[in-house]
Amino acid sequence: MNLSLEKKIPEDYLFDLESERRVLSAILHSEDACIEAYNLLLASDFYSPRHATVFELACSLFERETNPTVVELLKEGHSLGVFTNPRDIEELKYIVEHYIEDENVGYWIQRVKQKSKLRYFEAFLRKTHQLITEEQNDDVEEILMTAEEELSKLTALEIDDRIDTPADIANLGYDEVERRFLRYKEIKELHKGVIPLDGLPTGFDNLNHITLGYKAGDLIILGAQTGHGKTSFALHTARAVAVDNKKNILYLNTEMSREQIALRWGSILSGIEHDRVRSGDINETELSVILNGYSQLRESGFYSYPCPNLTPEKTISIARKFKVQKNIDMMIVDYIGRMDKVDPKLQEWQILEQIVKTQKMLAQNLKIVVMCLVQLNPDGSLQGAKRMKNECDLMLKLSPIPKEELEENEELRKYLDPNYYIYIDKNRDGRSGVRIPINFDLQKQIMKDAERHSS
Amino acid sequence: MVSREQLKKIYDETALLTDVLFLKEKISLEERDFLLSLLEMVIKEKNNDELLELLYKWMKENNKSELDEIIKATALAIDFEDEKSLKDNMQIIRELLASREAD
């Protein structure tokens, strides 16, 4: 019996140059395709070394916030001495001729990925074959264990899928406890009892205290009725994270124009009424205060992406791009009820559930905080609330405090100026069912913890 | 009307042809970079009609005189990413073309 592997496998079964060219051509012609390929492929997935080089050049440009167009690729290739011969350009010409529609890139990426896995499998078979025939290793258990390990790498759905061994869990647990022990010690000794945050600041001391901040991988849902401060809450969060703490944040807005967002910042950062900022009814001193506010914004990590026709797929693509290029720590989607329906046959709650699931996955994969703003029904309930609650790590509801409650509630009387509640409906890591009184100055678009009477 | 795919094709082929001309030493590195940047500018729809008009005017009667060579050197010195460089060099080209016409 002839066991020679070369004779059993036709060579072109192990690679698909056409798919490789189509993926590369898509990268050079579409930013969306580039984002998708960047996230799903490695240079080693390409069979042709020339294709792998083109892919690496394109990725390197993309990481530096340059769209890898043909022109940019040529400039980069020459500066690195990759293209030295007209024949190199001929190959590039052949690549770019393989046009595909943007929406088909996923199919061609999968083709490249599958052939890459197949080559890996073939190499594995070859190695195992050699182990048995040439080295005649007698330890069958060892051969099988090694083979199993190699095969499990191939069958795993994603590159980053992993199974934690008992040792992994034990190490992780000990590291976490040690970190918390040291932090507790630090709180007592250095910060005189004030708990430092585990994640990004929320912009409210009381909420920080309960949540210890928004943590990477968390999905936060903030619900409020129309006109009850969803966008103000989002921008208040953005201020705490991006302006005060200089962390990078991506703000996706489905309703407001660039001008509207920019004007809101003028009011938030100057403390001058929004109506006056908008109409220009301000004096010269106030103009200079506003200018000072914008200089804080200029130095901040706030990136805005107004996008009226946002879809769940688009949020994935935009978030991936900003993670690579700006290393964002947080993304705020304002708001998910305005996202375009991908499938018109789906019910509203099914769409919301699908969106929320996508955002949770995105938060975990990119290790960022994702905050989704949702609209509450007039009675304060939320469509598909149960399913959303299951998916998220923190569910907050923002609502005005009813006048009667302000007058009758003994607890609220301890505060100077409460007018809104942040209700913690769910908190995976801590207390829930808590109402935090805050003050929301609608005119100045400013939110803060409600102050307690000094007595 | 040129379709998106046709436009991509024109862009790709022009860029690659420019690069081949450089590799075959028909044009210099500076000339190649200028042509690629010009192509990128047109395709990204950041059309600078005035610049294109100036270049067209220059090419129409370019007989490689000393003045033509100065115009060319000025064009090659444009930094397309720098608005000021673009504006300043366009002004120089405009003046040089005017003096060529006067001659």
Can you give keywords for this protein?
A: 455 residues; nine-stranded mixed β-sheet; B: mainly alpha; 5 helices; globular
Please explain how this structure is put together.
By secondary structure, chain A is of the alpha/beta class. Chain A contains 18 helices and 9 strands. A 9-stranded mixed sheet of chain A has the order 3-2-4-5-1-6-7-8-9, with helices on both faces. Chain B is an all-alpha fold. Chain B folds into 2 domains: 1-47; 48-103, no CATH class. The chains are: A alpha/beta (455), B mainly alpha (103). Chain A binds chain B through residues 29, 69-72, 74-75, 78, 83-86, 89, 92-93, 96-97, 99, and chain B through 5, 8-9, 11-13, 15-16, 19-20, 23-24, 33, 36-37, 39-40.
Structural category of chain B is mainly alpha
> Between the first and last Cα atoms of chain A, what is the distance in angstroms?
94 Å
Overall geometric form of chain B: globular
Number of strands of chain A: 9
Rg of chain A (CA only): 27 Å
List the strand order in the largest sheet of chain A: 3-2-4-5-1-6-7-8-9
Largest sheet of chain A: 9 strands, mixed
Number of domains of chain B: 2
Give helix and strand order of chain B, one letter per element, not per position.
HHHHH
Tell me about the biggest sheet of chain B? none
How would you describe the shape of chain A?
Answer: globular
Regions with little confidence, pLDDT below 50 for 5+ residues of chain B: none
